[in-house]
Amino acid sequence: MKYRARWIALAAGLVVTVFAVVLATQVGTDPRADANKSHLLGQNAPALDLPTLDGGRVGSSDLAGKVVILNFWNSWCIPCQEEHSALADFYGRHAGDPGFAMVGIVRDDTDGAIRRYVAAERVPYPVALDPGARASLEFGTRGQPETYAISPDGVITGTRFGPSSVANLEQLLAAARGQR
Amino acid sequence: MAWVALAAVVVVTLAIVAWPRGGKPSAAQRVQSVSSELRCPDCESQSIAQSSTETARAARADIRTRVAAGQSDAEIRQAYIDKFGPSILLKPESGGLGILVWGLPAAALVLGAGGLVLALRRWRREPHLRPTEADRELVQRARPR
Predict the structure, then answer these.
(1) Based on the structure, what is the number of domains in chain B?
(2) Could you tell me if B45 lies within 8 Å of chain A, comparing CB atoms?
């Protein structure tokens, strides 16, 4: 084949050009962007059956028919500490509503540390433990804090990764109630 | 002849590396294999197999349960993709943009090897120049006395 080397050089140049175009179109996109959102949005929430800090249990049957806010957190996570007052404030606004439930699920922490934190900060809402990280895995959590809103029919309607403000929590609650 | 021998060595080496070993993998081997392909959810670059976080331990237990329940490796991977998204995979998928990730290095290797072969053949065809008597006399005259 005449000018074989040129054909090979042309093919190599084509491969490099395609690669460059693909890279250029991917610049600015985060290959791990899907790690910043829940893939369970719109799906039925995983079943829960967890021990609570006060020695009881909380499960899906206790939460059925209510708008539920679940917050995965732990005592050593700084953003969790930052959002604590917002969570407490938000809970205080809605605790009297029988159609509302909120549970803080502890993720990756020790029993002693959690008890000390809850006592020191006077966490007002129920706190559940997640031994074996089963709930954390089922909800697809990647860290903390992560907050999930669940509608009365058990569908995850909203999620928030990172610390939440009262306004963020009210938005999640409205979405779970079907209000926008 | 040397090229034939070199090519034979490369082919045999690749065959040894890529040849499937033993029979069907055990359940433990499958758990290890699948866990190694999935990113630990709360780590940056460790696999579920490597990480010691509570979530990673829960994931290993979950994978063990799924293997025991008869799920295939592909089904288990898909279950984790459904829960965490494609970034849970440590290796790029072989479809979509992943084709370029896997295909481009292979294409570059083939093109590079082809270019090298062509260059070597060209160099071999170039005439070997030998000095003539006239060249030797010229050098002798030019040498300082």
Answers:
(1) 2
(2) no
Question: Which residue, among A19, A27, A39, A80, would best test binding to B if mutated, counting the most B CBs under 10 Å from its CB?
Answer: A39
Backbone phi, psi, residue A60, to 5°: -60, -35
Per-residue pLDDT tens for A52-109?
999 999 999 999 999 999 999 999 999 999 999 999 999 999 999 999 999 999 988 9
Closest by Cα among B20, B58, B26, B62 to B42:
B58
Contacts with A86 (C-beta within 8 Å, 6 or more apart), sequence order: A163, A164, A165, A166, A168, A169
| Reported ipTM | 0.77
| Of A137, A174, A58, nearest in space to B48 by CA | A137
A146-150 and A156-161: which strand pairing?
Answer: antiparallel
Does B116 lie in the same domain as B84?
no
Q: Is the peptide bond preceding residue B144 cis, with omega within 30 degrees of 0? A: no
Burial of B89 (0-12, 13-18, 19+ CB in 10 A): middle
Residues 1-40 (B) with a CB less than 8 A from some CB of A? none
DSSP B47: B
Query: Are the CB atoms for A105 and A128 separated by under 8 Å?
Result: yes
Please give the DSSP secondary-structure letter assigned to residue A149.
E
Spell out which residues of chain A touch residue B53, defining contact as CB-CB under 8 Å: 108
Binary contact (A40, B87; C-beta < 8 A): no
Q: Which domain holds residue B48?
A: 24-88
B2 lies in a domain?
no
pTM: 0.73
Task: Give the single-character DSSP code of A110.
Answer: -
- Do B32 and B75 lie in a common domain? yes
Q: Are residues B82 and B108 in the same domain?
A: no
- CB distance B115–A8 less than 8 Å? yes
Q: How far is B83 from chain A (nearest CA, A)?
A: 5
